[in-house]
Amino acid sequence: MTTIAPRKFSATDLIYNPEKFKEFSPPAKIAVFGDPVSHSRSPEMHNPALLESGIEAQYVRIHVRADELPASLRALANARWIGANLTIPHKAAAAKLVDHMDRLALLSGAVNTVVVRNDGSLSGYNTDGPGLVQAVREKFRVDIKDLTILILGACGGAGRAIAAQCALGGCERLVLANRSFEKIESLKRQLQPYFRNRPLFGSMERLVAIKLDECALSSELPRTDLLINATSVGMEKNSDFQLVPRLLLTPRLMVLDSVYTGGKKTQLLLDAEANGARVTDGLSMLLHQGALSFEIWFNRPAPLAIMRKGLISPATA
Length: 317
Known about the structure:
CATH class of the largest domain: Alpha Beta
Strand order of the largest sheet: 1-3-2-4-6-7-5
CATH topology of the largest domain: Rossmann fold
Structural class: alpha/beta
Strand content: 15-25%
Distance between the termini: 19 Å
Number of domains: 2
Radius of gyration: 19 Å
Shape: globular
CATH architecture of the largest domain: 3-Layer(aba) Sandwich
């Protein structure tokens, strides 16, 4: 078997020279699109799963800039690939370019999984939210419906999907935090119908939008069960940016950082853990959302143990 080194390709390769991907054995038929994309561990997760399942396809990284996304998706369909995953910054844009979407993708306005149909049309799905639910169950042994959840960066692609999943899953209370208050108010209005059927005791709202700053966080974190970072802060392995003041991270919190940096804890997790909070990085969420993508593409159970092993193995490129 000829393997593809886990380096990235460019959108130009896919758009103008799609035949090159057929030169590999098995051919490249699935990709992750992102800008940046080098950090993605998806090939290390999916290629062992494809091999284990006897599927004649390989999964590669493709560096796609924002202005290249429409042509890249069209090229994907024209070349009859199986599909693709979308990462930063393409999830919201992809939702406007696919032909069909599932319920979560529609509600969140974000797509992270694309399927090329037999007629060449593109179907969009979002597995970030369900992946988050399974990660919370796996790492904290709780269900989101029993929790007050605060999402940092709720208006990004992953953040919107997680917020929509929390709404659909009936979480006890949801706090949406974002640097742009205008955007967060719009998302709140969209999700409001899912929080009207079961009011909390007293005057506390079940759905709240706040600006991502120390003042607002200091008011909401004392009554939060699960804090989720859905921003890209911490993606750079040496980043020490303090997303949340350390004093606000109390021992009663559970903290999930959707960023995965290959085992190195982000500053948020380091601070929370130092204060006694229970923490987990984005590995489990990445694993479960990837497994769900696999099941959407191939309509069969994903080999979860193989995918987990691929994720935690040392990167080769």
